[in-house]
C-alpha cells in the first residue's frame, strides 16, 4: 500500500512511539497475555470493503471513494494548504491537507486516478475529507470490516491490529463452556464469535454490532459476566472458610429490648432481625448489607443485632462516617440498650485525651460491650477484648481504603467479626448482583406507620421571596425547617463562607425566626449543641451544609429548602430530602435552582420531582452516572465491565449467575479456564 499524501508522523507499525516502548502502551490497555489481546474488541468498524460513489457521500460517514483528480493546488492562506478535487461520474469531493510535504502535489497531479478514504465533512466549499488516506486503485479490497480498537495515546491502530491478529493465531481459543451450558443458554460458540467481532463480514448489520446485541456479542458479554460471577463465588467460598464465633444469643437482651419498645417493629424490620440473627449464629463471618430507604428504621435492626451479639458474650463496634451521624446512632442505641444494662462507650476523633484513653481501656479490657463512634474506631490503636460484630452505617461513604482497614481488624483475633453494613442508598439489584454478590442483602421495604410522602417542589431562584415566605409560614405553624446551603465543591473555605453568608442573609430576611447554623468545621461540641437545640425546638430554621445529609432525625422538621439544588447529585438530594417527613404531619422539600439548567441537572431535578422511592432514584442515578462512580471507584480508572451493560443486560447477568453455580459444581476445570482467560489480573480489585 502506498500512501502518497500520508503525513509522516503517523508512521504505522513503528516499534516505539515518542520513546514509550510498545509493550508499555499495551500494558496501559491491560494487554499482557494472548488472551488479553484476543478479547480486546473493537469499538467500531470502518467499511473498506466497498467503494462509495462520490455522489452518495454524507457528512460524518467514513468511506472509501475512487475517482480522478481533476485539480490540485497549493493555497497560501494563513498557512500553506494542499487542496485537490476528486471526481467520479456521480459527483465531486474536496480533499485537503493542512501540511504540505515536498513532492506531495506532484503525486496528486490532475488526471491521476486514486482511492481516498476518510471521514466526510461539510467544508467551506462543499463536502470534503481532511487528510484522506490515499491508495492506488486496483488493489483488492478487504472482505471484512476493519476494526477500530480502543487505544491509548501513542499507540496507532495499525500496531494494535497487528498484535491482535497475531494473538488470534497464538491464543488458545478453545471454548471454556461445556456444550451443555452453551445449549442451555443458547450461546454461540466462543471462537467464531470472537473472530466475527474482530473481523465481521460486510453483510453483518453494523447496528447489531454497535448495539452489542448480535449473538456474537451476546456470547462475549455472557463470558465476561460469568467470569465476574465466578470470581465473586470464589470470594464467597473464601469467606465461608474463615472462622467466626457463633453468636446464638439467649434472648436475655433481645427479649427485653423488644418488650420495652414504645412501638411495634415493622414486618420488614422483624424479617431483617431474623435473617441477621440466623447469620450471627453461624461459625463463619456474616457479611450482610441492610438496605432501607431513609427513615425505614435501620437503627432498630442494628440494635437487635448488637443485643444478640452482646448477650452471646461478644463486643460490638458501631461506626458511622461522620460525627453527627455517629452521635445520632449513639443517642438511639444508648436510649434502647443502656436501660438493659449494656456498658457502652462513645469514641470519636474529637474526644479529650483522658476520656479517649478511658474508653480505649474499657474496650481492651472488655468492660465496655458496645462502642459507637466514627472512623476513629477502626484506627490501629483500638483493641477489643472480644470483638464479635462490626456494624457500619452508610458504608458507601467510607472510602474503599477504610473498608479494607476494617477487614484487617479481624485478622488480629483468631476469629473474624461478623459484619453488618447499613445503607439508605439502595444499590440497584443488577449492581448488587454484579458487585456485591459476596454480600447477603436484607431489605427494609416498609416504612414505619404514620410517614407521609414528602412533597417536592421546584422553584426558580428568582422566586426566592416566595420560598422565604413559605419558611415563615411553616415555622408559625409550629414546625421547623432546614435550609441547605449551596454546594461549593472546589473549595472547603468557600463552602464554609457560603454557609456563614447564607446564615446571615436568612437571619436578616427572617428576623422573627431563631436561625441556627451547622457546618462541618464547627467543633464537635458546638455541633452537638446546635443539633440538641434544633431537636429541642429552640431553633426554628437550621442553615446547614450537607453535614446533615445522612441519618439526622428530627421528626418536627417539616420543610427542607435546598439551594442551588442543580449542583447536587441525585443520591445526595434524596438523602437530604429524607431528613423531613419523619413523623408529625406533612412535609415539603423545596429545590431552589438557578437557571439555565444543564440537561443532566434537569433530569436529576425531574427525578426528584417525580418519585420519592429510593430504589427508583438509585436506578436513575445508575443510568446517569454509571456503576463506577456509584461505587466510588471512578478514580481507580478501571472499567468495571468492558462489554456488558447492567441496565440492558440484566437477563444475561441473571443467566451468568446461574451458570457460575452450575460450572463451579459440575465443571470446575472449565470454570478455572474461564476465569484464567478473562480475569488474570482483576481479582484483588473485586474483593475490596
Ligand atoms: P434510617 O433507616 O433512616 O436510619 P432510623 O433508624 O433513623 O431510620 O429510624 C427513623 C425513625 O423511625 C427513628 O425515629 C426511629 O426511632 C423510628 N422508628 C424505627 N422503627 C420504627 C417503628 N417500627 N415504628 C415507629 N417508629 C420507628
Ligand atoms: Mg440511619
UniProtKB/TrEMBL annotation:
Q: Does the keyword DNA repair apply?
A: yes
Q: Which of the seven top EC classes does this enzyme belong to?
A: isomerase
SMART domains attached to this UniProt entry: DEXDc, HELICc
List residues of the Helicase ATP-binding domain. 279-444
- CDD domains, from UniProt? RecG_wedge_OBF
| GO biological process per UniProt | DNA recombination; DNA repair
| Gene Ontology MF term list | 3'-5' DNA helicase activity; ATP binding; ATP hydrolysis activity; DNA binding
EC number(s) of the enzyme? 5.6.2.4
Give the catalytic activity. Answer: Couples ATP hydrolysis with the unwinding of duplex DNA by translocating in the 3'-5' direction; ATP + H2O = ADP + phosphate + H(+)
Which PROSITE patterns does the record match to this protein? HELICASE_ATP_BIND_1, HELICASE_CTER
Its keywords, alphabetically, are:
ATP-binding, DNA damage, DNA recombination, DNA repair, DNA-binding, Helicase, Hydrolase, Isomerase, Nucleotide-binding
Q: InterPro entries, per this entry?
A: ATP-dep_DNA_helicase_RecG, DEAD/DEAH_box_helicase_dom, Helicase_ATP-bd, Helicase_C-like, NA-bd_OB-fold, P-loop_NTPase, RecG/Mfd, RecG_dom3_C
Instruction: Tell me the ranges covered by the Helicase C-terminal domain, including all copies.
Output: 463-634
On the tree of life, the source organism's domain of life is: Bacteria
Q: Which SUPFAM superfamilies match?
A: Nucleic acid-binding proteins, P-loop containing nucleoside triphosphate hydrolases
Functional note: Plays a critical role in recombination and DNA repair. Helps process Holliday junction intermediates to mature products by catalyzing branch migration. Has replication fork regression activity, unwinds stalled or blocked replication forks to make a HJ that can be resolved. Has a DNA unwinding activity characteristic of a DNA helicase with 3'-5' polarity.
Q: Which family does it belong to?
A: Belongs to the helicase family. RecG subfamily.
Q: What is this protein called?
A: ATP-dependent DNA helicase RecG
Species of origin: Castellaniella defragrans (strain DSM 12143 / CCUG 39792 / 65Phen) (Alcaligenes defragrans)
Amino acid at each position: 500500500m502506498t500512501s502518497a499524501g500520508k503525513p509522516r508522523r503517523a508512521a504505522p507499525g513503528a516499534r516505539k512511539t515518542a520513546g514509550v516502548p510498545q509493550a508499555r502502551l499495551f500494558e496501559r490497555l491491560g494487554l499482557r497475555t494472548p488472551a488479553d489481546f484476543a478479547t480486546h474488541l473493537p469499538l467500531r468498524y470502518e467499511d473498506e470493503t466497498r467503494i462509495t460513489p462520490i455522489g452518495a457521500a454524507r457528512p460524518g460517514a467514513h468511506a472509501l471513494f475512487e475517482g480522478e483528480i481533476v485539480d490540485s493546488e497549493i493555497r497560501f492562506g494563513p498557512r500553506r494548504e494542499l487542496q485537490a478535487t476528486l471526481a467520479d461520474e456521480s459527483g465531486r469531493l474536496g480533499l485537503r491537507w493542512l501540511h504540505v510535504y515536498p513532492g506531495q502535489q506532484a503525486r496528486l497531479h490532475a488526471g491521476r486516478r486514486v482511492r481516498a478514504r476518510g471521514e466526510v465533512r461539510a467544508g467551506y466549499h462543499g463536502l470534503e475529507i481532511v487528510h484522506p488516506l490515499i491508495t492506488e486503485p486496483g488493489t483488492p479490497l478487504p472482505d471484512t470490516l476493519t476494526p477500530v480498537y480502543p487505544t491509548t495515546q501513542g499507540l496507532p491502530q495499525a500496531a494494535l491490529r497487528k498484535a491482535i491478529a497475531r494473538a488470534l493465531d497464538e491464543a488458545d481459543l478453545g471454548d471454556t463452556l461445556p456444550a451443555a451450558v452453551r445449549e442451555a443458554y443458547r450461546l454461540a460458540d466462543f471462537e467464531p464469535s470472537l473472530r466475527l467481532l474482530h473481523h465481521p463480514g460486510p453483510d453483518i448489520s453494523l447496528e447489531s454490532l454497535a448495539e452489542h446485541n448480535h449473538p456474537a456479542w451476546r456470547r462475549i458479554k455472557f463470558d465476561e459476566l460469568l467470569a465476574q460471577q465466578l470470581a465473586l463465588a470464589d470470594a464467597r467460598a473464601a469467606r465461608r472458610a474463615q472462622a467466626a464465633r457463633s453468636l446464638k444469643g439467649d434472648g436475655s437482651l433481645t427479649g427485653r429490648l423488644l418488650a420495652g419498645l414504645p412501638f411495634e417493629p415493622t414486618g420488614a424490620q422483624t424479617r431483617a432481625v431474623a435473617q441477621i440473627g440466623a447469620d450471627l449464629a453461624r461459625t463463619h463471618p456474616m457479611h450482610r448489607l441492610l438496605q432501607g430507604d431513609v427513615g425505614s428504621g435501620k437503627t432498630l435492626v442494628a440494635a437487635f443485632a448488637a443485643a444478640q451479639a452482646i448477650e452471646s458474650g461478644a463486643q460490638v463496634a458501631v461506626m458511622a462516617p461522620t460525627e453527627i451521624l455517629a452521635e445520632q446512632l449513639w443517642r438511639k442505641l444508648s436510649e434502647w440498650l443502656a436501660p438493659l444494662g449494656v456498658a457502652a462507650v462513645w469514641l470519636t476523633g474529637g474526644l479529650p485525651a483522658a476520656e479517649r484513653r478511658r474508653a480505649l481501656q474499657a474496650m481492651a479490657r472488655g468492660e465496655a460491650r458496645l462502642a459507637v463512634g466514627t472512623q476513629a474506631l477502626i484506627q490501629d490503636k483500638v483493641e477489643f477484648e472480644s470483638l464479635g460484630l462490626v456494624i457500619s452505617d452508610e458504608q458507601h461513604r467510607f472510602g474503599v481504603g477504610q473498608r479494607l482497614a476494617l477487614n484487617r481488624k479481624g485478622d488480629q483475633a483468631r476469629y473474624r467479626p461478623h459484619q453488618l453494613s447499613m445503607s439508605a442508598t439502595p444499590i440497584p439489584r443488577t449492581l448488587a448482583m454484579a458487585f456485591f454478590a459476596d454480600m447477603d442483602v436484607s431489605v427494609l421495604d416498609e416504612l414505619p406507620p404514620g410517614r407521609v410522602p414528602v412533597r417536592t417542589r421546584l422553584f426558580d431562584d428568582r422566586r426566592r421571596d416566595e420560598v422565604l415566605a413559605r419558611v415563615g409560614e411553616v415555622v408559625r405553624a409550629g414546625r421547623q425547617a432546614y435550609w441547605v446551603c449551596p454546594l461549593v465543591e472546589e473549595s472547603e473555605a468557600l463552602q464554609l463562607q457560603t454557609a456563614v453568608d447564607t446564615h446571615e442573609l436568612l437571619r436578616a430576611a427572617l428576623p422573627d425566626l431563631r436561625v441556627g447554623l451547622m457546618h462541618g468545621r464547627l467543633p464537635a461540641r458546638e455541633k452537638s449543641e446546635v443539633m440538641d437545640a434544633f431537636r429541642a425546638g429552640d431553633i426554628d430554621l437550621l442553615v446547614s451544609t450537607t453535614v446533615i445529609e445522612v441519618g439526622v432525625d428530627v421528626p418536627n422538621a417539616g420543610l427542607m429548602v435546598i439551594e442551588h439544588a442543580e449542583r447536587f447529585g441525585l443520591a445526595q438530594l434524596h438523602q437530604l430530602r429524607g431528613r423531613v417527613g419523619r413523623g408529625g404531619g406533612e412535609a415539603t422539600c423545596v429545590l431552589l435552582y438557578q437557571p439555565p439548567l444543564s440537561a443532566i441537572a434537569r433530569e436529576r431535578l425531574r427525578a426528584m420531582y417525580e418519585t420519592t422511592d429510593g430504589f427508583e432514584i438509585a436506578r436513575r442515578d445508575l443510568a446517569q452516572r454509571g456503576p463506577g462512580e456509584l461505587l466510588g471507584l471512578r478514580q481507580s480508572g478501571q472499567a468495571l465491565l468492558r462489554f456488558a451493560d447492567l441496565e440492558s443486560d440484566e437477563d444475561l447477568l441473571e443467566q451468568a449467575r446461574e451458570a457460575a453455580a452450575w460450572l463451579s459444581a459440575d465443571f470446575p476445570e472449565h470454570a478455572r479456564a474461564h476465569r484464567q482467560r478473562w480475569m488474570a489480573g482483576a481479582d484483588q480489585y473485586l474483593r475490596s
